[in-house]
Fold:
Amino acid sequence: DAIKKGAYYYFEKPVDRARLLIIIERAIENLRLRESHRLLSEKLFPGAAPIIGEHPSIREIKRILPRVARSDAVILLTGESGTGKEVIARNVHSMSGRSAAPFLAVNCASLPDTLFESELFGHERGAFTGAHRREIGLFEAASGGTLFLDEIAEVKLDIQAKLLRALQEREIRRVGGKENITIDVRIVAATNRDLEEAVKAGRFRADLFYRLNILKLALPPLRDRLSDIPELAEYFLAKHGEKGVPPVREITRESMRLMLRYAWPGNVRELASVIERAVVLAEEGRITPDVLPPEIRDEPAGHVSHLFPLPPAGVDFEKVEESLLRQAVERSGGVHTRGAELLRMSYKTYVYRLKKFGIIPA
Ligand SMILES: Nc1ncnc2c1ncn2[C@@H]1O[C@H](COP(=O)(O)OP(=O)(O)O)[C@@H](O)[C@H]1O
Ligand SMILES: [Mg+2]
Structure:
């Protein structure tokens, strides 16, 4: 009984000390093997790649992830391409009780409808031309594990209905099949589109949306967490730097400055490939600006002459205005004549704007 509960061994009384020592040694050896097996499988399956970043949004995700992972709830990951949705999905899987079973990923935008349906649910022999034998789909293949549905917004309406059934009833039917098959998979879905918008436009079923939108984790674009760039860049440098000749172990201050002012439309994926490329081109074991791509190296002309350089990704003008107003209120200690002076405004305009942003009661 004790063995069933996880005991390594059990003894009949009276206990033989020599035997006891051997058993303990074996138990330790066993643990050591398990540990080295764990390290090996982390190398073999990149699933356990760390989530880098200390921006509050990322920290919060990392904080709740272990709890979220242990539940079997559907997770919806949102964020632009390259923001780390798949990294999170793989971490969810490896932190979950399902980590010994497969993690399978499918891009919902990559296959034509009919093939996609059979990819997900499998098909029976003769279900369509070319279906020479029965094949199981991803829902069955991922049994006990996790299925990552990437770009979920691209799923066509008729397949959405079948997905909803799979999520709701935990049952699927193979294409051309007659029996229902019970499934045991955890779903993690991802999208770089606004699903609510797609629901409003009639392109996405509202009921499926509600089924998916139980635990939503939003990944910010890299330009909204520039403070993570140094750590991410160092991480990718540690990963790829040794491939350089000589090994590249440093990013110069000027290169870092340029990377911090770039908008990163391709997000973390773009940063990773910029570093990987720079390592190949670097000459003295350092990433200097000349090995950065031109769009990062070449600063927008004439920016020096601007009072407030407009960041490459642009700004929310109203937010800038509100922020300046709040700073003026704070610095003037709420003395509006003084605050108005700080912003070179008339008293009337100043108070009007404070009210407009709700900084003071209207
Ligand atoms: N927080 C992160 N920490 C470490 N690597 C990351 C992080 N976010 C993204 N990456 C890396 O960036 C690349 C793109 O990430 P991915 O998860 O595929 O993005 P998405 O699925 O949102 O398109 C991958 O190579 C991944 O390893
Ligand atoms: Mg992706």
